Amino acid sequence: MKKLVLLLFLFSIAGQAQSNDKILHFGAGIATGAAGAFIAHEISGGNKWWSIAGAVGGSLMAGLAKEVIDKNKGGPWDNGDVVHTVAGGITVGIAIEIFSGRKKRKSSRSPDTVYNQTLLSPYPIQEPFPKLNSLSISQN
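Now predict its structure.
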């Protein structure tokens, strides 16, 4: 239920737009934010904070690029357009993390978990020092 309320709150930002232009910027932020989140997710190996940062960064770059293009064509610079584009990126970044289906890990993990996972590795485990067998040691 908390996820649904949060998602509705995030998408209500789009409803606050005063013109069709702002809604289009919000939608562009969603599209570029999703692309940025995907790229960051792949590069970081699934780190959720990098995925959100990728979504925000992708939408910010798109919003700034669009305003630079508008400015070069003689139009005014509109910070509201950049804000709505980034809001779309923030929304999609958080929505992806909410609905990604990853379960939270319980804090009762034992420190041996990493070692036990290496036992399932297809590669042989080499110990740093060979074990000394009492039969192989000759006594003089």
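Residues 112-116 have pLDDT under 50 and may be disordered.
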